[in-house]
């Protein structure tokens, strides 16, 4: 087993096998650690210039992961610094949740109910661990949730994560992939915190249970209307203060409350649906926290997950 270090390994110890992902901030390779033949994920980040140093997103990821040792959070093994590049070495997991859901669709199936329940519980545990340490992930989506073949799921990609203090301060709105973005961010709320992650988690669990994204918007306004069509257009009685948010428009269409999309007619238990809907409450102050979620009846009798 590779022990976590900090900038002490040589890149020559790693043999790249294949590219497994590419994003705004770097390229991820599957690589083999030569001394033990163990597979790792090698994330290569280009430095913009000699004077710019390590990108802020990478620094945030490194700092966050050094504080978050948890079985359901991806492990940062090493940081390798070179003149024009920095490499982050992570434990390797064979697939992300999006790919797994897509594979189930192709097979006209879905994630096994007990596995979906286990994944949901593990994610609640990991996110609760982050929030109790005052770290918001801010980019939860199926692509950032990695799974192994033993039924373990782990949160990855902490490049947009932020620590927070009380009193809360204003944060950027350029966070969270559109489909999983909380309505308070979409409507321009200047101060937000842990409930934005809880909203994302609710949308992800809903997707695991139905094989389809709950709110698949293609623009910010379409995203809002997708949410309104399922939860109803928010009003002061359901979300006090919503009409004062920067992007709220009194001329928004008034949609009645609908239902979570379930085109293939998969049976959802009342407890599972309630868990999702408690995470998808408009008012962030009433939205279910991960601490409360861990006690939700959906997980009753599942001691194996505890």
Could you walk me through the main structural features you see in this protein, from its secondary elements to its overall organization?
- The protein is α+β, with helices and mostly antiparallel strands.
- It has helices spanning 56-67, 97-106, 113-132, 183-186, 195-210, 220-231, 270-279, 290-293, and strands at 14-23, 26-33, 38-46, 76-81, 85-91, 95-96, 135-136, 145-147, 153-155, 162-163.
- Strands 1-2-3-5-4 form a five-stranded antiparallel beta sheet, covered by helices on one side. Strands 6-8-9 form a three-stranded antiparallel beta sheet. It has a two-stranded antiparallel sheet with strand order 7-10.
- Helix 5 (195-210) runs antiparallel to helix 7 (270-279).
- The two termini are 26 Å apart.
- The mean pLDDT is 88.
SSE inventory with pairings:
Layout: E1 14-23, E2 26-33, E3 38-46, H1 56-67, E4 76-81, E5 85-91, E6 95-96, H2 97-106, H3 113-132, E7 135-136, E8 145-147, E9 153-155, E10 162-163, H4 183-186, H5 195-210, H6 220-231, H7 270-279, H8 290-293
Antiparallel strand pairs: 1-2, 2-3, 3-5, 4-5, 6-8, 7-10, 8-9
Helix pairs in contact: 3-5, 5-7
EC number: 2.7.11.22
Catalytic activity: L-threonyl-[protein] + ATP = O-phospho-L-threonyl-[protein] + ADP + H(+); L-seryl-[protein] + ATP = O-phospho-L-seryl-[protein] + ADP + H(+)
Pfam families: Pkinase (PF00069)
